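ERR on first pass: missing label on line 2. Operator R.T. fixed the label and resubmitted. Corrected input:
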Amino acid sequence: MARLNYQQLVVDSLRYDYPGPEFPDGRAALHSVSFAARAGEVTAVVGVSGSGKSTLLACLGGLLTPNAGSIRLDDGDVSRPHRSAIVTQGAPLFDRLTVWENVATAWGTPRRALRDHAVEVLAGFDVAHVADSFPRSISFGQRQRVAIAGSVASDAPVLLADEPTGGLDPENSTRVGLALRTAAATGRIVIAVTHDQSIEAIADHVLRLESGTVTVRGVA
Amino acid sequence: MSRGSFPRPWRWLALSTRKGFASGFPLTVLSAATMFILASVSVPLVTASEAVSAQRSGVGVLSQIRVTPLDAAPDSPALTTAEREHISKLDDVESVVADAQVGIYAGGEATWSSTLTTATAATLPPGVTTLPTGTEVIVPESIDGHDLADAVGTPLQIEYTVSTGEQQGELRGMTLEVIAAYDADWQGRGPNAFVGSEEQVVELLAARAGVPASTYLDKTGVPAVIVTVADDAAIDTVARELSERGFDARPARDSLGELPGVVALFPAIFVTVALGAVGIIVLLVGAVVRGSLARRAREFGLLRVRGWSVADVRGLIVLDIGAGSVIGSIVGTALGAVAGAGVSSVVTESAASTTSLLVTAAMTPAPVVLSVVVALVASGRTLRRDPYLALVEAS
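pass 2 clean. output:
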């Protein structure tokens, strides 16, 4: 079982080049990105489209392998999959599983005995009432909160959210922002890539990326 | 509570199967159909091949020639003792046995009638291994409603016809010794036939003709003989020599009806079915893999997000198809073996051989191996693009 009480995620001189024949000289999506994100806090990564935000998130989540630099959780490597949970854009959930089953996959194959515990986790994000629904029958904002709840259900000490409020109205964006804060309150390191100012508003730190480079580090 | 971790491919396969979004079902159906057809063909094929092979060797039916005088040729020689001795001296001739039958009737209060026919080692009823000698006889277990199964080991009273003059005769009684009984459904020597020694059949034939047995054999001759040829390849040569001598000589393999021809067609049918199945499996597995990736793109992308590697996703696809194929192959083989055994009983009049069932069972993994190999190749090609990236772009 992974421990949650890590102090910080440290990214040092991270570089990622897009592979493939279309970039014979290499196209750097990330240049020497360095920052630290602390446990119990929300770090927002902002920037225009193509600035490298999603690439950074994929590197942090172990989905892409950086060409250079390091990502460390306290003193350990973060690339092992169970160290991070990712909430991707569009709130994708397993459509053929109910909401509580989606959450329960964090603990293995969903079975009836896990339902109550899954509902308990969902309640923390105000979506317990849709526990028995299928993802396609609930609202987009509810799906996003379910996805965050599922990430919190796992033992992963790092929660990575890619545009968690994309396509949401202000009210639902606020709710998702609160959900991220709830997740951070459990002792997790929360990093959210976003265009949304409401997320910037609830973040403890803001990191601005431009053309793959960190240009601004700020405290919200 | 005790916490686990996100399911690995085997558990995800079980979950997706239970929830009805696994991809392997078409392969289950295809593998079942393939193995059903292959097993239906292979069981009778191997059983019949074994039967034919057995009959080609030693004293088997397919090494025999039935020889009769030519009815239409007045100068055709009779199958007398002298002529039989001549035939027995031809090259490659193993034995010459009379093929004759004579009418017999129930003795005492019983009311059945039958024929007493000569026995050869190749034409003994199923389950009987002893050739009758002297007054010994093999009987059907029942005849015209009379149970003879209990007569084994006991004397049996019969009656036969003795000639008493021109177109005149009378019945006389004698005792035969029953040494075995066979299932009355077997009609290899005709319905309800009693199978006895050549000596006994000739004695009754001679009595019906009103002459001593020696005179019957030396002058009249038996109606037919079975010539057994030692070398399978010499059958045509021996048959030609007998024809040239004035006999009607018919190798048994030419008169066994359509069995050899049907058996000869089996390999071609089998190869055609097998090749067709291979082609269909390759096409279908490719289509299932592509369809699976299209239909389950979001799911595979999410699995990547949940910590699976691309290799894990590929493993799930292969497991899904492999498991579907395993189930289908086993079910198809079992059903096909039953159907094949039925075909065997019709074609060869015998139960499916153990070898045929083993050969069929050995083929069971073939669709599975083929499906898995094609799935590995197809998934390798289609998963060049990371499902995670497809998920991000779709969002």
